[in-house]
């Protein structure tokens, strides 16, 4: 079961990204609070607090085939006792075994598997999350087994030893995983007295060998940890089912009322993992896999303290931008980078890091200093740009449409997201969380921008090229690395000698939808109707009578009898569509950020243009694509690239 490192937000991903302000937020009455929810969401929501202080969110979805539940416990590996690394994660495993009510081992997992579902759990720095999905008519019995995790689990000595081995084999697997290795290296190069420094998963050595040497009984420590930390007031439950809210409420009250509430105070971990000695460093590390990665980290004020202002979203939208004039655009043109992501990385209420992750090409690997020079030049540009409001407005519009019109996610993913949010956000924001910045604050943005400095940077550079050239080894995963100090004067030198490239803010995005109204449909239409028929074209239309979102889908078939008449013409048709896609590439990023997607490809009778996304600006995109088709001309330089 995962104890996974937190991932950096992918820039430009509309799900966590950015767009136009919509009308007043839609809210749902849920007992004493109103929960902001997507405007096309027909599901029922109810917040319930049981007498034992367990906070629950019930979601009723008559259309669902799968039911799901997730329990978030606000305790993670930051709470591991010193010298017993991995105890919180180990406990997560042990709860799956058996309970007093269901003493047969694995009866929970077996029941779920036999009823069309799956189970999992993960342990993070400050929380542990248990979850499952199951056929919707089996929710009652599944929940009864699940609730026993938190009421009366059995942690037999026999199972304890076997499960330590399971934790150890999970760790063995992680030893070969670069994300785990690099995450731990970042933790290792931090203050030893901060819990961020800890090894989260545990292994045979920490949970068995070293525990014994210290005279500790791991099983007794486990029970102690469970008894003192697993208190109902630190838990958040989400249950998703087909039943009515009243029925779900009865069910949850019955099954979960016996969880003990010991009134445990929420944990907090003040202080920052980085002291000055952990900054201004360049760490060269040897990964398991081929490839070169540059990770640039800056300690920043946690975004959670001002998530309505969303400074990190604003900054990652720009640093992670891929349009003309962006950092990635320039690095790609130089042939140095394959991808670039920017966003908030590991964070808590007390500390946070802003991360920029660049996958370098072999050539880019030789230009690390120039790449960093360009990054710092772009950051300077942002610091001096005066945070234009129109960029925030675009971002807000993108985020709002992303939240209000996203497709339904599988119930199991949905419940895990929400139960995790419940620990962090007030009830009204349980669904929306920090996904939509709504208050424009130039100061909040400027404050974080001013934290991205050469004085506080941490650079992690991974490449096989460093093999044999490093002297140190990270203790838990054995990653080879070296550390050099990089004073700000060196970085200024890199900024000075980086190539003169035209870095600038993005231009306005013409594809962001502003009209999200729905066209009313009078009657149910089963078949597409022909709207137009001429000598050259036919046009069919079918209104959506099922999903009710302001989205459209266009498919245009171009019949070209000669396109597949010989091997040569088939190849030419293929090259033609590739060239078209290539010419349209300048629009691709803006369109995608705004939730519009298109593709041009050959088919049996010619070629086909497909478009999907928000209806409002689809016409702009369609006209752009058709325009390119009409004025098609072969440019020699691009032709030779495509041909190759
Ligand atoms: Zn695990």
Automatic annotation (TrEMBL):
SUPFAM superfamilies, alphabetized: LuxS/MPP-like metallohydrolase (SSF63411)
A GO term, aspect molecular function: metal ion binding
UniProt-listed GO biological process terms: proteolysis
Domain Peptidase M16 N-terminal, first and last residues per copy: 57-190
Transmembrane segments: none
Metal-binding keyword on record: yes
Biased composition regions of type Low complexity, renumbered to the chain: 11-20
Residues covered by region (Disordered): 1-20
InterPro entries: Metalloenz_LuxS/M16, Pept_M16_N, Pept_M16_Zn_BS, Peptidase_M16, Peptidase_M16_C, Peptidase_M16_M
PROSITE patterns membership: INSULINASE
Signal peptide interval: none
Record-given protein name: Insulin-degrading enzyme-like 1 peroxisomal
Species annotation: Zea mays (Maize)
